[in-house]
Amino acid sequence: MLSLIIAESSLELVPRELQSHISIKSHAKKLGKYPSEILLDNSWHFAAMKGLENEIKRGRPDIVHLCLLAATSIPLYHENEIEIYVHTIDNKVIILGDNVRLPKSYHRFAGIVEKLFKDKVIKTDDSVLMELKKMTFDELIEMIEPKSVIALSPDGVPSNYQSVGKELDDSCLIVGGFQKGAFSDEITQHIDRTYSIGEQSFEAHVVISRILYEYEKTIFM
Question: Is 0.70 surpassed by the pTM of this model?
Answer without folding.
Answer: yes
